[in-house]
Specification:
There is one protein chain. This protein is mainly α. The protein has a single domain (78-315), classed as MetI-like fold. It has helices spanning 4-20, 22-52, 69-76, 78-110, 116-128, 131-141, 148-155, 177-205, 209-217, 222-250, 254-259, 271-281, 285-293, 295-315. α2 crosses α13, α5 (116-128) crosses α8 (177-205) and α10 (222-250) packs antiparallel against α14 (295-315). The chain is flat, with a radius of gyration of 26 Å. The termini are far apart.
Length: 316
């Protein structure tokens, strides 16, 4: 006859076996992430799909199915096409500059010098700063009347009557099309550069020192070592940094919203901001959801391409 001690021993063995099981532990550890994604990403995503095929508005959230009418309507609007072009231009330009600067900063921060930890802290500070607060600071820097950039240019004789930049003492960064787009890109670079730098710095720190020493023995200089040894080895990690940067930039609406609100004349309008204006401020939840859903296939295609490229680089 089985005693109580035998039952406890068997239950203890089962529990111990469960915690020794890799499949059981992986399920337990992944469950909170799955619940988080379902609640904060999955449910809003499926609600957006439902709204995009209806004529729901802020005043009337009743779901009346209208097919693909919202998608056809937004594709025909010049504002959507402008926002789509701006989103690609905004993202591609910012990420090219970020990858170049992140490589430079990562190489500098990898070396030993006095004050290295302070330099790392200052570089990571923009990423730790709330983006709304940081963009408001840039809004003052680009102010049409009190911009410190204008003041410096006037003091050096580069701006004002008879100068190369024009007779006016104010560049009006956010009021001119090209300067407004440049301002938005600069702020996005300032915001995302620390993340890419930290990721690449981790990649450079993981390179075996033996490979770098062998390159030095073979007579390779700094540039040759960097482009033929370091960059090929950290290419998968660089791809991850690029993927994060593309996602953060393509889906960002805070920077253009605070700086320009999409102006002047839709020149800095991007898809997330246009979805906000149509869906929330304009009251058309269906059209806003349709615009927002267009981000999904674009980002999915970009993620697949970048991850496949990273896998090829890792295999090779």
């Amino acid at each position: 006859m089985e005693t109580a001690a035998d039952i406890r021993t068997r239950e203890h063995s089962r529990l111990r076996f469960a915690f020794d099981s890799e499949r059981f532990l992986s399920t337990v550890f992944l469950l909170p992430a799955v619940v988080y994604i379902v609640l904060l990403v999955g449910i809003p995503f499926f609600l957006a799909i439902a709204f995009s095929f209806t004529n729901a508005t802020v005043g009337d959230t009743t779901l009346h199915f209208i097919g693909i009418e919202n998608f056809v309507r937004i594709f025909r609007t010049p504002q959507f096409r402008r926002a789509l072009f701006n989103s690609f231009f905004f993202t591609i330009t910012a990420q090219i500059v970020i990858i170049i600067l992140a490589n430079i900063l990562a190489v500098i921060l990898e070396t030993d010098f006095r004050g290295k930890w302070l330099a790392r802290f200052l570089i990571i500070l923009p990423w730790a700063t709330p983006i709304s607060l940081g963009t408001i600071g840039w809004l003052w820097i680009f102010d049409s009347k009190f911009s410190p950039i204008d003041w410096v240019l006037v003091r050096f004789g580069l701006l004002g009557p008879g100068t190369i930049l024009g007779p006016s003492k104010h560049l009006t960064f956010l009021g001119k099309e090209g300067l407004a787009m440049a301002a938005v890109i600069v702020v996005q670079i300032w915001r995302t550069l620390p993340l890419a730098t930290v990721i690449l710095l981790a990649g450079l720190s993981s390179i075996p020192q033996d490979l770098l020493d062998q390159a030095e023995v073979d007579g390779a200089g700094f540039l040759r070592t960097h482009f033929q040894v370091r960059i090929p080895l950290i290419m998968p990690i660089m791809s991850v940094a690029l993927l994060f940067g593309v996602i953060f930039t393509f889906t960002d609406m805070v920077v253009p919203f605070v700086l320009t609100r999409g102006g002047p004349v839709y020149y800095t309008q991007v898809l997330p901001l246009w979805a906000w204006f149509k869906g929330i401020e304009g009251g058309s939840l269906g059209e806003g959801a349709a615009i927002a859903l267009f981000l999904f296939p674009v980002l999915l295609a970009a993620a697949i391409f970048i991850l496949r490229s990273a896998r090829r680089a890792e295999v090779s």
